[in-house]
Specification:
heterodimer, A: 9 helices, 0% strand, elongated, B: alpha/beta, 6-stranded mixed β-sheet, 4-stranded antiparallel β-sheet, 37% helix, 26% strand
């Protein structure tokens, strides 16, 4: 057998990409997209229309700030939520059903398994976030301009945050969760707690945002903020890298019971 | 030429306070079928996990095909391609079809795409699932999943096959089919088999050598034929008619004189005498006593000890301790 033909990590990556066919992927992806478009494009129209009559300046401010509040939380939230849905099968069930142990009887290494799985999830989820960003920014510009004659004037920092920084932060958090699900003895409990946290971040973030807007300038998203996202992603990445040294077969199998 | 497929030398493994494997020593030679027997929690699965390089022994020396199985590397990758594994749980992907499961696992072992399908179909034929290749595993019965798990291991065409409770959940016909298949693989293809099973009848038919472990350490090891000769022989007398109480009393009295008769057990149409030493033929004193008391019998023979007898006798101190 020619050993250089197939790399086991690539085979696992391709298998996990098969989750693109799963109803969970489509349900969570389409649901989140629909919800976000409704919340970020159509719900604000009525609010801004009302403001246009009483205070055109406030309406113009809201039209500029709304895409920024979207970029600040929602790409991160959508990415993490779809990640959580998919990781139930990709990470959690793999360990609880004992297939992780079975995978380790093949030439696959534990780290390769983790890397292949998180890469596959990124490949599946990033396009959803990317398409969502494009759709939301496009529709906000198109529909708002058409219906109210208002332009959102999206800044490069906002785009960078939505397209790069937030997904990167979500990816590093998701990778950490994947790693922890291998290391803890009850990954299902970890998953439940994480789900609650992600939901809390999403809804709490929206609440905080409404308070933030009251005192915000028209340029809520600055390059410093974008840098902070990248910085947090880097810190999470370093923590993950440190913990990944614990990825030892004996430790993981011993903590499977 | 590998001298030993597996070599455990005084291997121990603990999980916190629990000593799962305690100073275990045994060897596995090429082409043999070897059984690892014991209660649930005796240390069988931990031993197999250590052999597969999933767990690291605390102490002792362990080799799989001449190498320490724990450290990952090219050498172990090559060895893993020669080891088929069926664990107690099937651990299949239920949302995938049977053939998708097999081709995926073959891919993990590095087999090129062109080779995977042929191997998968061949192994499905071996376990009688060729007509279910395109069916999702989630719809399979437990027995079919068990056979598919075996097909996954066989698709590697392994040198060593490790089976943890291979026929659990199979119907009697499927058990016989799988056993025949394994027998063929061992005897004709030179496959080495390491199995655990609670079905002692199955082990007796398949395995020539075995080890019984309890609380992580070996309490009995050897070839089945040698183990049969160990322990106390039992002489069975097939009676023509039931014995009266007075005849039985007289017989007990006569046999009590014979120092080598340890125990007399009366069953409905048979007597079972446990002797304290081995005899080449039935002792003449026993036949004389039976004749003298007018006891009619149709046959008198030494019982062939089954694996169940050997196992239960080996476990006697454990069972006794548990009952106290």
């Amino acid at each position: 057998m020619n050993k250089s033909i197939v790399k086991p990590g690539k085979v696992l990556y391709q298998k996990e990409l098969g989750n693109a066919k799963s109803p969970v992927y489509w349900f969570s992806g389409v649901l989140m997209m629909g919800l976000m478009i409704w919340l970020s494009v159509f719900v604000p129209i009525e609010n801004i229309k009302l403001m246009l009559i009483s205070s055109p300046e406030t309406a113009s401010f809201m039209a500029k700030i709304w895409p920024q509040t979207y970029a600040l939380i929602q790409p991160l939230w959508v990415f993490l939520l779809v990640w959580m849905f998919l990781s139930t099968e990709v990470f959690i069930a793999e360990k609880t059903d004992g297939r992780l142990e079975m995978l380790l009887t093949t030439p696959l290494k534990l780290k390769e398994i983790w890397v292949s799985k998180r890469r596959a999830l990124f490949t599946l989820i990033y396009p959803i976030v990317l398409i969502l960003n494009v759709l939301i920014f496009y529709l906000q510009n198109k529909i708002w301009l058409m219906q109210m004659g208002i332009s959102t004037g999206i800044q490069p920092a906002t785009l960078t945050l939505a397209i790069l920084a937030a997904p990167l932060l979500a990816y590093s958090l998701g990778s950490l969760m994947g790693l922890l699900s291998f290391l803890v003895s009850n990954p299902a409990a970890l998953q439940s707690i994480t789900f609650l946290i992600v939901f809390a971040v999403g809804f709490g973030g929206n609440y905080l945002m409404s308070n933030l807007i009251k005192n915000a300038s028209a340029n809520l998203i600055t390059w410093t903020l974008v840098g902070a996202y990248f910085g947090i992603a880097l810190i999470v990445g370093i923590i993950t890298l440190f913990l990944s040294r614990k990825l030892d077969k004996d430790y993981v199998i011993s903590h499977t019971f | 030429m590998i001298q030993r497929i597996a070599n455990f030398q005084q291997v121990s493994k603990s999980f916190g306070e629990l000593k799962a494997v305690d100073n275990l020593t045994f060897e596995l030679f090429p082409g043999e079928a070897f059984a690892l027997l014991g209660h649930n929690g005796a240390g069988k699965t931990t031993s197999i996990r250590m052999l597969l390089g999933l767990l690291k022994p605390d102490t002792g020396q362990l080799e799989l095909m001449g190498h320490d199985p724990y450290p990952d590397g090219q050498v172990m990758d090559d060895i893993r391609r020669k080891v088929g594994v069926v664990q107690e749980e099937d651990r299949l992907y239920l949302q995938m079809t049977a053939i998708e499961n097999l081709t995926f696992w073959l891919g993990l072992y590095g087999f090129p795409t062109s080779d995977r399908k042929n191997r998968a179909i061949k192994s499905l034929q071996q376990v009688g699932l060729e007509n279910k290749a395109a069916v999702k595993v989630g719809t399979f019965s437990k027995g079919m999943r068990r056979r598919l798990a075996l097909a996954r291991a066989l698709a590697l065409e392994p040198q060593l096959l490790i089976l943890d409770e291979p026929t659990i959940g199979l119907d009697p016909e499927a058990r016989v089919e799988i056993r025949n298949l394994l027998e063929d693989l061992v005897h004709q293809n030179g496959l080495t088999l390491l199995m655990t099973s609670h079905d002692l009848d199955e082990v007796e038919k398949l395995c020539g050598r075995m080890i019984i472990i309890e609380h992580g350490h070996a309490i009995l090891e050897g070839k089945l034929e040698d183990l049969r000769k160990q322990g106390k022989p039992v002489l069975s007398v097939e009676l023509s008619e039931p014995l009266s109480a007075s005849v039985l009393d007289h017989l007990s009295g006569e046999l009590s004189v014979l120092t080598y008769v340890d125990n007399l057990k009366v069953e409905e149409s048979a007597l079972r005498l446990t002797l304290s030493k081995q005899f080449d033929q039935v002792p003449s004193e026993v036949i004389a006593s039976l004749t003298r008391l007018g006891i009619k019998f149709t046959g008198i023979n030494f019982e062939k000890r089954t694996l169940e007898d050997i196992y239960l006798q080996a476990m006697e101190p454990e069972i006794g301790a548990a009952n106290e």
